[in-house]
Write a structure and sequence with these properties.
By secondary structure, this protein is mainly α. It contains seven helices and three strands. The chain has a three-stranded antiparallel beta sheet. The protein is elongated and about 60 Å long. About 15% of the residues are buried.
């Protein structure tokens, strides 16, 4: 029988554990660096499947599909974007005919965002691709590892 296959992730963990002994700073072992590399990989996979939208644009469409009409600021909060960023995302989606913006009846400063029929059709077409993107991004992991990663990242993301 051959030796068990060691993944690059396991090698990285071994390096991190052995590097801790010398207390040196190694950029490649820092959480921010590793997250950035994982994010870059995910964005490249996303672009290979959905080249005409950015991940934030897709996130806005998917969340609007989930909740329906909402304020621009609330949408930003729900998809983890600041007000300036979500405004740019919404403006680009509006220019493509995917969303419409209306002023709130009671508060003219408040902008409401909703999907157009074209936007609804687009997100329904894109959701299966998004599921493939997630599967491809997580492909190096076992199902148990993927679940653990998502749980731990969720824990980090919700700590404030």
């Amino acid at each position: 029988m051959g030796r068990p296959t060691v993944t690059s992730g396991e090698n990285m963990l071994r390096r991190i554990e052995s590097d801790r002994a010398d207390d040196g700073y190694h950029l490649q072992d820092q959480v921010g660096f590793i997250l950035r590399k994982a994010h870059q990989r995910h964005v490249a996979i996303f672009a290979s499947h959905i080249g005409d939208l950015t991940p934030p644009q897709f996130a806005a469409l998917a969340k609007l599909q989930d909740i329906g009409e909402t304020s621009q600021n609330q949408l930003g909060a729900l998809i983890a974007m600041d007000a300036a960023t979500v405004k740019g995302v919404i403006d680009r989606l509006k220019a493509r005919g995917f969303v419409e913006i209306a002023k709130h009846d009671g508060d003219k400063r408040r902008l409401l965002v909703s999907l157009t029929d074209e936007g609804r059709q687009a997100v329904e077409r894109l959701i299966p691709l998004a599921q493939k993107i997630t599967a491809e991004t997580m492909a190096p992991l076992s199902p148990k590892e993927a679940g653990t990663l998502l749980r731990l990242l969720g824990k980090i993301a919700s700590s404030e």
